[in-house]
Amino acid sequence: MKNRRSETAKPRTGETASTPRPARRSLAIELLRAREAVMSHFRPILAAHDVSEQQWRVIRVLSEEGTLDATEVAEKAFILPPSLTRMIRSLEERGFITRQKDEADGRRVLLRLAPSGQAVIDAVMPHSLRAYAEIDARFGAERRERLLELLGELAALKADRPASE
């Protein structure tokens, strides 16, 4: 990695501490690049099953967690609530999920994976596991596990308020 400066490097002549880092050394951009590299293994699988990344996250969350309300699905699948509302309609129309009002609280909408949604999970999962095996073969399973730990620690630093406050 020639010509890459460390995140803690002192400013070069003419730079100040407030000078932006080159884009190739931005944590946010590197995370996006890594996400794109990882997703390049999974997008063709999802496309072959006519499921978007966001739809996959929803049905996978419901497969793993069981019945959830829409707010919980949005949080666990990292989907904005307005996007989830549109997606629920589409997934329900395709028969992948069912939606019902919570009997205890009529304002809550409960979502559950339907048998055809589970069929998508069952069809995609073997391909997904092969993709993970490919990534592990190239990157290393131990490195991937360590990266997941580090990313979890980084995610725990989420700010509760804007930095300008």
UniProtKB/TrEMBL annotation:
Pfam families in UniProt: MarR
Residue span, HTH marR-type domain: 24-156
Q: What domain of life? A: Bacteria
UniProt-annotated stretches for the region Disordered: 1-24
UniProt-listed GO biological process terms: negative regulation of DNA-templated transcription; response to stress
Mind telling me which InterPro entries this protein's record contains?
A: HpaR/FarR (IPR012712), HTH_MarR-typ (IPR000835), MarR/SlyA-like (IPR039422), WH-like_DNA-bd_sf (IPR036388), WH_DNA-bd_sf (IPR036390)
Listed Basic and acidic residues bias regions: 1-13
Give one GO molecular function term. DNA-binding transcription factor activity
Q: Which SUPFAM superfamilies match?
A: Winged helix' DNA-binding domain
Designated name of the protein: Homoprotocatechuate degradation operon regulator HpaR
The organism of origin for this protein: Kumtagia ephedrae
